[in-house]
Amino acid sequence: MARKLWYTRGLAAVATGAMALALAACGGSGAGGGDATEGAGDGEAGGLVGVAMPTETSERWIADGAAVQAGLEEAGYEVDLQFAADDIPTQQQQIDQMITKGAEALIVAAIDGTALAGQLEAAAAEGIPVISYDRLIRDSENVDFYVTFDNYNVGVQQATSLLVGLGLLDAEGNEVADAPAGPFNVELFAGSLDDNNAHFFYDGAIDTLQPYFDAGTLVVKSGQTDIEQTNTLRWLQETAQKRMEDLLTSTYNDGSVVAGVLSPYDGLSRGIITALQNSGYGSGDQPMPIVTGQDAEIASVKLINDGVQFSTIFKDTRKLAEQAVVATEAYLAGEEPEANDTETYDNGVKVVPSFLLESDIVYKDNIQSLLVDSGYWTADEVASGVSE
């Protein structure tokens, strides 16, 4: 059972969202999972909205899909929620089917932000607004709106947490007067190159770390610093684990040690940590390196609570889902949704009006205030590392 997540527009929405996630998680609504609209709302106040999510292999995307579905259903829309198993042709087919079924709006978290031009042209021909969800759809004029977090700042936060863990900054991000001089050996990981966000994350992180590279305080011993060298296709945990294993074998076989790893996503972090643990880190006299992350996945939150992973970035997907629903309602009412950024997100054809949300750094000492007190995870879930 996937974790409980609710869409919050008011206290009355809490139970609705939790029930919707239970239905989505247990009903097998992904590719090949039967009728995607089974269990959806009656749509009395609105028509059909298609929601295309990339995969069910990440608890984050299960939660996003459920939260968007719950919010739309509460607003009176029928929802066609589909997960594409990280397969581009499957997602293309799913969106084609949504258009054929008569969807009046589409909310799309793309697997590959460059692979949906045909589907978006078909949507535009039918007058269907397209809201790009968290991952920017590129190379198309037929993207109407983008809801996401401040992705450059997420990268800044990831790098900041790495520096905090190494003792170079304090928890508020200020330089420490008596900070160790280093040098610290660090290794860099980036996300999937076909995800536009991966570039923003990496740019924010590298810009933050660059002064420490220039000063010699941080050293990338492998020499792998370009995103083309550090990327992780499809954000796969096993790919990150294999690369970390290769780095340890090729670069750290001379007695040198890894002090920190910049990881842009919790799934990658767990693969990296597994590779490090298999090489003896975290046991005996060899401490675990500082490892960052993103998405506050419950397995990684437990690792942070246990002192294994150092940090993650909390992007409250309840708020992201809410903005997707608000944008959808605006379009279907014949209005334009409110954007708070009209300059940053150029998809190669146009600057897409966007609504950006803020994120938070999670350390062990603020798990309670950020994640438990807000209802995102329960104390029992944090202790077990398993969603209820």
TrEMBL record:
Its main location: other. It is found in: Cell envelope. Keywords: Signal. GO terms for molecular function: carbohydrate binding. Residues 49-336 form the Periplasmic binding protein domain. CDD domains: PBP1_ChvE (cd19994). PROSITE patterns: PROKAR_LIPOPROTEIN. It comes from the Bacteria. Residues 1-20 form the signal peptide. Pfam families: Peripla_BP_4. One of its GO terms (cellular component) is outer membrane-bounded periplasmic space. SUPFAM superfamilies: Periplasmic binding protein-like I. This is Sugar-binding protein. It comes from Antribacter soli.
